[in-house]
Model the fold of this input.
Amino acid sequence: MIEKRMHPRYEARIQIKYKKLDDSVSSWHTGPEVENISLGGLFFSAYEKMLVGTPVIFKLQIFVENSSTKIIELKAKVVGVEDGIVSYDTRVVFTDIDASHKDLLRKFIKYIKP
Done:
């Protein structure tokens, strides 16, 4: 299997909120939690099965170097979905991430990195 990831993944057990962007009646869902995260995307459990290509937006509460918390919104696109036991294992890649959010995400990853 050829590895396609540009950024290393790190385990991160954080709560998230997410919703589909292409559905006018979609509401915010609180996900079980993020499994892992990188500068390029994340892997999480979703209660709803989404199609590959579905645009979503996330609200992530992250910790940074001084242990303060920030909430950032990140847009993403679903790139993989597998059936789980009570949820769907969903992989997304971030899209349209601005420099300030990328910097905060980088600080968070530095904070959680083993």
User: Anything to note?
Assistant: Residues 10-112 form a domain with the Thrombin, subunit H fold (CATH 2.40.10.220). The chain has one domain: 10-112.
